[in-house]
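Reminder to self: tokens first, then the designed residues, so the page reads top to bottom the way the pipeline ran.
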């Protein structure tokens, strides 16, 4: 699986290089030029824009850190504010070491990640979401073949879901002897019907467009349902 490229990856790399160089030379107390300061602010601004959805706290904090990162004395010489620099180091290292988008995909069902990850990484959010739902449909049809040997798979996905998930369905994925178990089965049945009605059927007749947030929500739901299909028979 290809590593997801961050939209602010280049700026993060350049800022980290500057941080490493500055850290290695802190004892020298050298002065900073206006051109250097401008570049640092540009990198921080680009990172701030890129992390607003994933790191809202850092997106608010980084501009404040940038504003006090450099200090000018009465002679006009510009030096580094050690406290602000330390805070910048912590934030940048966290974002670089553990991007939220990487955490997200590590929790997604492998089959969904295999069909959607690279599309999402390239910014094809709508196609990534559509592929995720199609993969759920494919797995449902596979499950039907596994549990109803010798029976032809229905053409309509709704009939497949009914044969597997209904009260007397072939897929016994939870204990239905209790009220909570019966409620869970009904809820999961509704989720499978809902994802197909809301996303799969319209996509078969139109070119649906999704924003990043909508694609993430759809992929997460598809992943959840794939994990349900992985459950053993009760």
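Designed residues (234 positions):
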């Amino acid at each position: 699986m290809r590593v997801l490229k961050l939209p602010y990856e280049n700026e993060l790399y350049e800022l980290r290089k500057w941080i490493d160089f500055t850290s290695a030379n802190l004892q020298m107390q050298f002065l900073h030029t206006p051109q250097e300061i401008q570049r640092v602010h540009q990198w921080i601004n680009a990172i701030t824009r890129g992390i607003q959805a994933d790191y809202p706290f850092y997106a608010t904090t980084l501009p404040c850190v940038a504003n006090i990162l450099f200090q000018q004395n009465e002679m006009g010489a510009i030096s580094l504010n050690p406290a602000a620099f330390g805070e910048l180091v912590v934030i940048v290292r966290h974002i670089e070491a553990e991007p939220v988008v990487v955490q997200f995909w590590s929790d997604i069902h492998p089959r969904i990640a295999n069909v959607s990850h690279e599309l999402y990484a390239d910014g094809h959010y709508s196609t990534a979401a559509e592929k995720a739902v199609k993969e759920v449909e494919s797995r449902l049809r596979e499950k039907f073949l596994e549990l109803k040997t010798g029976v032809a798979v229905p053409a309509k996905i709704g009939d497949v879901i009914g044969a597997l998930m209904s009260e007397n369905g072939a897929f016994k994925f939870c204990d239905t002897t209790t009220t909570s178990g019966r409620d869970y089965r009904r809820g999961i049945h509704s989720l499978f019907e809902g994802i197909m009605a809301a996303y799969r059927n319209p996509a078969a007749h139109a070119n649906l467009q999704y924003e990043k947030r909508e694609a993430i929500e759809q992929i997460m739901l598809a992943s959840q349902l794939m994990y349900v299909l992985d459950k053993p028979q009760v």
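DSSP finds ten helices and two strands in the chain.
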